[in-house]
Amino acid sequence: MLNFLPAVRFADFLDILVVAFIIYWILLFVRGTRAVQMLLGLLILMGMFVLSRRLGMVTFQWLVGNFLGGLIIILVVIFQSEIRRGLAKVGQVPIFGRAPAVPKPDFLDELVKCVMRLADAKIGAILMIEREMGLEEHVEHGKKLDALFSYDLLASILSTKSPMHDGAVILRGDRVSAAGIILPVSAESSVVKTMGTRHRAAWGVSAESDAVSVVISEETGNVTVFHDRQMESASGAMELREILGRVFGKSGEENDSAE
Predict the structure, then answer these.
(1) Positive or negative: CA dihedral 93, 18, 230, 72
(2) How far apart are CA 245 and CA 103, in angstroms?
(3) 224 Cβ neighbours under 8 A, 6+ residues apart
(4) Taking the complete model, does pTM exceed 0.70, yes or no?
(5) In this structure, are residues 146 and 175 in contact, taking their beta carbons and an 8 Å threshold?
(6) Exposure string (b/e) for 187-224, b if CB count within 10 Å is 16 or more?
(7) In what order do the strands lie in the sheet with 125-129?
(8) I need a labelling partner for 188 at 20 to 30 A (CA). Which of 7, 17, 98, 116 fits?
(9) What's the rounded Cα separation, in Å, for the pair 169 and 148?
(10) Pairing of strands 175-181, 143-148
(11) Domains in the chain and their CATH numbers?
(12) Are 249 and 102 a contacting pair, CB within 8 Å?
């Protein structure tokens, strides 16, 4: 037993630790998504393959063996959405002290006022606040504006007489980057399966990126916030401000006070 200990190098211990951390991070990352069921299905299929070899089931073993032969390609095809999100999360790790982009408190206060006024008028809208991950792929499919954010601007964009009122609005910093953006509707999700197209589209973008989507229902005037694969409803201005402040953290207020 003692002779075995010198054979274990520090690199081996580090190797096991890194692999264990990666597996743990992947499990946390896919928790609560469809990827869990698909991963479980693959594990069951692999278990049946092992069992078929022990029982001598030649035909079933050949069929499943050929299917699992391209396992890497299968994983990439099935989990392409999760792989994209995972790589984007890795790319978000701060390097050389780079601080995350945080909207200023004044902007959040003005945003809350605008949202509640739109909600009172039952003007449906999707307002997407860009964070670390860029939304340029969506901006390119809308009307680029790059205009200073204000209620008057939003009201004119979302007016039923405006040709851009049906699309989403992307906010970058304290400016309206683009409007009239038609978002792709995501696949069925247990989170928004009972909701309309507007909410499902906002959920899809917030699930694929770190953007924060504020959705106003045209039928009820209810306000919903989608972020980090989560959904929160805001019944009033104070609750909406609390949600946005929690999502973006307190660093924005600290930076503003330091100035």
Answers:
(1) positive
(2) 10
(3) 199, 202, 214, 215, 217, 231, 232, 233, 234
(4) no
(5) yes
(6) eebebbeebeebbbbbbbbbbbbbbbbbbbbbeeeebb
(7) 143-148, 175-181, 168-172, 125-129, 212-216, 223-227, 230-234
(8) 116
(9) 13
(10) antiparallel
(11) 5-91 (no CATH), 105-258 (3.40.1700.10)
(12) yes
Residue in the block written with tokens 């209810």: 222
Amino acid, res. 73: I
- How many residues are given for the chain? 259
pLDDT values of the chain reduced to their tens digit, one per residue, 259 residues? 455 555 667 777 788 888 888 777 777 666 655 666 777 788 888 888 888 888 888 888 888 777 777 777 777 776 666 666 666 556 655 554 444 456 777 888 889 999 999 899 888 899 999 887 777 777 777 888 888 888 888 888 888 788 887 788 999 888 898 898 888 776 556 666 677 888 888 888 887 788 899 999 988 889 999 988 888 999 899 999 999 989 887 434 444 444 4
* Tokens linked to 138: 């969506």
Q: What is the 3-state secondary structure (H, E, C) of the chain?
A: CCCCHHHCCHHHHHHHHHHHHHHHHHHHHHCCCHHHHHHHHHHHHHHHHHHHHHHCCHHHHHHHHHHHHCHHHHHHHHCHHHHHHHHHHHHCCCCCCCCCCCCCHHHHHHHHHHHHHHHHCCCCEEEEECCCCCCHHHHCCCEEEEEECCHHHHHHHHCCCCCCCCCEEEEECCEEEEEEECCCCCCCCCCCCCCCHHHHHHHHHHHHCCCEEEEECCCCCCEEEEECCEEEEECCHHHHHHHHHHHHCCHHHHHHHHC
* Residue owning tokens 């049906």: 166
